[in-house]
C-alpha cells in the first residue's frame, strides 16, 4: 500500500482534542502516521500523491454500538456485504452486531462462523456481541469467559431485556469477575405488553396500546440497584424518556460508573411523526414526546448520555406492510446515522465535536477497542464529510438491503464523501 | 331540520370514511341530513331504492359482529347494491394471508365500497391506501367506530332537536372503546359538552387532551347531563387487573336509578350494545321506554349507514 496524504481538511478528533485545519498521513501499513495542522502541502514531498479534501471534515471512522445484521438466518433482510456498504456510505467503520440472529449468537462455535463471514464479506470492522442468556430466553447465562476469549466484546440480549431479577443479578455478579460488558435493552415486558407506541395522547388518539415510560425506568432502576452491589461494566443500550434521564443523572452523581446510549431516532423524531400509522416509525424503544426528545438532546450535551447509535434494524418491506399491530419493529439507519445527527449541529443543539465524540471515542472506550480516534499508530479508519451538502433521503438510493428508513424524503445537510478502513479507501461518493 | 341551516351543496372532501377525525362539520352535517331522509323510507312498506343499483359492496368483518354487520348489509341492500359479506373465519386470512393481499384480491373484483371491521387500529387506513374503492370503517381496534357515533348523534338530534349545548356523559370502559373515541370527537364537533366517567384504570392516557372533562365519580360526572351514554364493559377483561370485580364495578359505575337521578330529569340513556345487564346498566333502565333510546339507536343505524354508503360511493365515482 502506498502512503496516502490527505490534505486541506478540517480535522476533528475529540479523543485528542484536535479541531483544526490540516491533514493526515496514512503509512504503508494503513496506520495513521501523522495528523494535524503540520500536515500541509508545504511540507510534503512534491512527488507524493495528495488527496485534497477541500476543507471537508476529516474525523475518525464512526463506531456504531447497535446494529442488527441478518446473518445468520435473515440474510434476506441484510447480509454482511450490504451492511458494510451501507455503513461505509454513512462513514461508519466499526459496528457492534446484535446477537438476535437465527440461531442466536450464544455459543463459541457460532462466533467463529460469524467472525469468518464478517471478515470475508464485509469491509468494516464487525464486533459481534453475544447474547446474555442462551437463545435470549432470559434464563441461563451464556459462557462469558469463553466467549470473551473468542473475541466477544460485549453481551446483550439485543431486542430483549432480561426480565427475571434473579437471573440479572447473577449475570451482573458473574460479569464482574470476568470483566465483561453488559448491555441492557431496558424494557419491562409486562408493563409494555402488546404496547406499540409511546403511551400518551397519540396512543389514545390512534387507539394503539401504549408503552409507558415506566417500562424503561423500572428496569434501569432495578439494574442500577444491582450495580451498587455488583459493580460490573454496565451499559444501557438506549434511553427514550426524560424520567429515565433523571435516574441516570442521580446515579452518576452518586458515583456509580456505567454508561448509556440513545438511538438517533429518539433524538430526531417524536411520536407525532407516526402520523397516520406509519409502520416505519414503529420502534423499540418507542418514539416519545417532543419533551422527551429535547431532554435527550440536553443529556447528550451534559454528558448524561454517552453514545448515539443507529439502532439499525433492517426489515423487509413485507413485514412493514401490515397493520401497525402486526408490523415489524425497527428502522434501517446506519447509513443516515451521521447525516441525521448533523441536524442537531446545524440547528445548534449540539456542538460538532461533542456529536462526533458520541459516535467515536465514547463507544470505543466503553467497548474497550482501539477505534474512534486519530491517534498516531492506530488503524487509519477515517470518514470525510461534506458537512453542508444538502440532500434528500430516498430509500431506493440507500445501500442497505432493506429500505425501512424512518426518514424517507427528509431534507438533510451533510453527507459522507469518503470512508477509509485500515488505510484503504473503502467508499467514495461519486 | 337542517343541522346547518341554508346548507348549500356541501362538498365531501374525504374519499373514505375512516373516522370522525378527519371529517369536517359540513361533511358530518351532510351525512346526518342525508340519513334523515332515509328514516322515513325505512319505516315505509317499500323500503328499497335503486340509488346504488349496479354497485358492489363488500363487508369485510374480521371481528364477530351482529348488529353492525347486519345493519350495513341491510343498508346496502335497501340502496339496491349487491352486498357480499365475507366470512373471514373460513377465508385465506386464517391461512396467513395479509390484509393487503386480501385487499388486492377483493380489489380485483372491482367493488365500489368495502366496509371493514378489524381488531387492529388503523387497518381501514391501510386498506384505503391499497384499493380503488371507498372504504368505510365499521370499527377498528380501539380507534374509531364512526358510523356508531353518527347514529348516536342522529338519535340525539331526533329526540332533542340539536346537540349544541347539550351535556353528554360517556361512561364505562373508555380505555378499550372505539365508540367512546368517535363519540368524543363528534359530540365535541357538534357543540356538546362531553364528560367521561370511568375508573382510572379504564381511562386512556391523556384523555383530557381530547377535550373532555374527566370524572371518576359517577355522581359528579352525571350531574346535569342530558344524555347518558353507557359503554359495554367486556366481561373477559373485567377479571383481569383492571377492576376488582363486576360487583364493585356495578356498585360504583353501573347505571342505576339513583345514579340516573343526578342527571337531568328527562335525560336519555344510550348504549351501543350489546349490553351486559346488571353489570354496566340496570336491566329495568335499559328497557324503560321513556328513558332508553337503545332500540332507536339500532333503527337509525341503518339510516346512517345508508347515508354513508350513498355519499362515499358517489364520491368514489366522481
Q: What would you note in describing this structure?
A:
Chain A has helices at 80-89, 108-121, 144-149, 165-178, 201-206, 214-229, 242-253, 264-268, 290-301, 337-346, 352-357, 361-367, and strands at residues 4-13, 18-26, 32-36, 50-52, 57-60, 62-67, 92-97, 125-128, 181-184, 197-198, 210-211, 233-236, 259-263, 307-309, 382-392, 411-421, 424-428. In chain A, strand 2 (18-26) and strand 3 form a beta hairpin. Chain A is globular. With 430 residues, chain A is of the alpha/beta class. The model of chain A has no long low-confidence stretch (mean pLDDT 96). Chain A contains 12 helices and 17 strands. In chain A, strands 1, 2, 3, 4, 5, 15, 16 and 17 form an 8-stranded mixed β-sheet that branches. Chain A has a 4-stranded parallel β-sheet with strand order 9-12-13-14, sandwiched between helices. In chain B, strand 5, helix 6 and strand 6 form a beta-alpha-beta unit. A 5-stranded parallel β-sheet of chain B has the order 7-6-5-8-9. Chain B starts with 24 loop residues before the first helix and ends with a helix. In chain B, 40% of the residues lie in helices and 14% in strands. Chain B is globular, with a radius of gyration of 19 Å. The chains are: A alpha/beta (430), B alpha/beta (318). Chains A and B meet through helix 5 of A and helix 4 of B.
Amino acid at each position: 500500500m502506498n502512503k496516502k496524504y490527505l490534505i486541506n481538511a478540517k480535522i476533528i478528533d475529540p479523543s485528542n482534542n484536535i479541531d483544526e485545519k490540516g491533514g493526515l498521513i496514512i503509512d504503508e501499513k494503513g496506520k495513521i502516521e501523522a495528523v494535524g495542522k503540520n500536515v500541509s502541502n508545504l511540507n510534503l514531498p512534491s512527488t507524493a500523491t495528495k488527496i485534497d479534501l477541500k476543507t471537508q471534515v476529516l474525523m475518525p471512522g464512526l463506531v456504531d454500538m447497535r446494529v442488527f445484521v441478518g446473518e445468520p438466518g435473515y440474510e434476506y433482510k441484510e447480509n454482511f456485504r450490504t451492511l458494510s456498504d451501507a455503513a461505509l456510505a454513512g462513514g461508519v467503520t466499526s459496528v457492534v452486531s446484535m446477537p438476535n440472529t437465527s440461531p442466536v449468537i450464544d455459543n463459541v462455535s457460532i462466533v467463529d462462523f460469524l467472525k469468518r463471514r464478517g471478515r470475508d464479506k464485509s469491509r468494516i470492522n464487525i464486533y459481534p456481541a453475544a447474547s446474555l442468556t442462551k437463545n435470549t430466553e432470559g434464563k441461563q447465562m451464556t459462557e462469558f469467559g469463553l466467549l470473551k476469549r473468542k473475541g466477544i466484546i460485549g453481551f446483550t440480549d439485543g431486542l430483549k431485556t432480561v426480565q427475571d431479577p434473579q437471573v440479572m443479578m447473577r449475570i451482573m455478579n458473574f460479569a464482574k469477575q470476568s470483566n465483561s460488558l453488559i448491555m441492557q435493552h431496558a424494557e419491562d415486558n409486562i408493563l409494555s405488553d402488546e404496547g406499540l407506541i409511546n403511551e400518551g395522547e397519540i396512543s389514545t388518539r390512534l387507539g394503539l396500546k401504549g408503552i409507558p415510560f415506566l417500562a424503561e425506568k423500572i428496569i434501569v432502576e432495578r439494574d442500577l440497584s444491582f450495580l451498587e452491589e455488583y459493580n460490573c461494566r454496565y451499559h444501557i443500550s438506549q434511553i427514550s424518556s426524560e424520567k429515565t434521564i433523571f435516574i441516570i443523572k442521580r446515579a452518576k452523581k452518586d458515583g456509580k460508573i456505567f454508561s448509556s446510549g440513545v438511538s438517533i431516532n429518539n433524538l430526531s423524531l417524536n411520536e407525532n411523526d407516526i402520523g397516520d400509522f406509519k409502520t416505519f416509525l414503529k420502534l423499540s424503544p418507542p418514539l416519545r414526546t417532543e419533551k422527551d426528545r429535547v431532554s435527550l438532546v440536553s443529556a447528550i450535551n451534559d454528558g448524561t448520555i454517552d453514545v448515539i447509535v443507529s439502532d439499525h434494524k433492517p426489515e423487509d418491506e413485507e413485514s412493514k406492510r401490515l397493520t401497525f399491530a402486526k408490523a415489524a419493529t425497527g428502522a434501517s439507519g446506519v447509513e443516515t446515522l451521521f447525516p441525521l445527527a448533523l441536524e442537531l449541529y446545524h440547528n445548534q443543539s449540539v456542538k460538532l465535536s461533542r456529536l462526533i465524540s458520541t459516535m467515536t471515542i465514547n463507544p470505543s472506550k466503553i467497548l474497550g477497542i482501539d477505534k474512534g480516534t486519530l491517534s498516531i499508530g492506530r488503524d487509519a479508519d477515517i470518514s470525510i464529510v461534506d458537512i453542508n451538502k444538502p440532500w434528500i433521503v430516498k430509500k431506493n438510493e440507500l445501500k442497505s438491503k432493506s429500505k425501512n428508513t424512518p426518514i424517507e424524503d427528509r431534507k438533510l445537510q451533510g453527507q459522507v464523501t469518503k470512508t477509509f478502513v485500515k488505510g484503504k479507501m473503502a467508499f467514495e461518493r461519486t | 331540520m337542517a343541522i346547518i341551516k341554508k346548507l348549500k351543496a356541501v362538498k365531501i372532501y374525504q374519499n373514505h370514511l375512516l373516522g370522525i377525525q378527519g371529517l369536517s362539520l359540513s361533511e358530518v352535517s351532510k351525512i346526518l341530513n342525508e340519513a334523515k331522509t332515509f328514516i322515513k323510507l325505512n319505516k315505509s312498506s317499500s323500503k328499497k331504492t335503486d340509488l346504488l343499483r349496479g354497485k358492489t359492496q363488500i363487508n369485510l368483518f374480521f371481528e364477530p359482529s351482529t348488529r353492525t354487520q347486519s345493519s350495513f348489509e341491510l343498508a346496502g341492500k335497501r340502496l339496491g347494491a349487491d352486498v357480499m359479506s365475507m366470512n373471514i373465519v373460513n377465508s385465506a386470512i386464517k391461512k396467513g394471508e395479509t390484509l393487503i393481499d386480501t385487499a388486492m384480491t377483493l380489489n380485483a373484483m372491482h367493488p365500489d365500497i368495502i366496509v371493514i371491521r378489524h381488531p387492529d387500529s388503523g387497518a381501514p387506513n391501510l386498506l384505503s391506501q391499497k384499493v380503488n374503492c371507498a372504504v368505510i370503517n365499521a370499527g377498528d381496534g380501539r380507534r374509531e367506530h364512526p358510523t356508531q357515533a353518527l347514529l348516536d348523534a342522529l338519535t340525539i338530534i331526533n329526540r332533542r332537536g340539536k346537540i349544541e349545548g347539550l351535556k353528554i356523559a360517556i361512561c364505562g370502559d373508555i380505555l378499550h372503546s372505539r365508540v367512546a373515541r368517535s363519540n368524543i370527537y363528534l359530540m365535541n364537533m357538534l357543540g356538546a359538552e362531553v364528560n367521561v366517567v370511568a375508573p382510572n384504570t379504564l381511562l386512556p392516557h391523556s384523555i383530557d387532551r381530547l377535550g373532555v372533562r374527566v370524572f371518576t365519580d359517577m355522581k359528579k360526572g352525571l350531574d346535569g347531563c342530558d344524555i347518558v351514554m353507557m359503554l359495554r364493559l367486556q366481561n373477559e377483561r373485567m377479571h383481569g387487573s383492571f377492576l376488582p370485580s363486576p360487583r364493585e364495578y356495578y356498585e360504583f359505575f353501573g347505571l342505576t336509578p339513583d345514579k340516573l337521578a343526578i342527571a337531568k330529569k328527562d335525560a336519555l340513556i344510550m348504549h351501543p350494545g350489546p349490553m351486559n345487564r346488571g353489570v354496566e346498566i340496570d336491566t329495568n333502565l335499559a328497557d324503560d321506554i321513556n328513558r332508553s333510546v337503545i332500540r332507536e339507536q339500532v333503527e337509525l343505524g341503518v339510516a346512517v349507514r345508508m347515508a354513508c354508503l350513498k355519499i362515499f360511493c358517489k364520491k368514489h365515482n366522481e
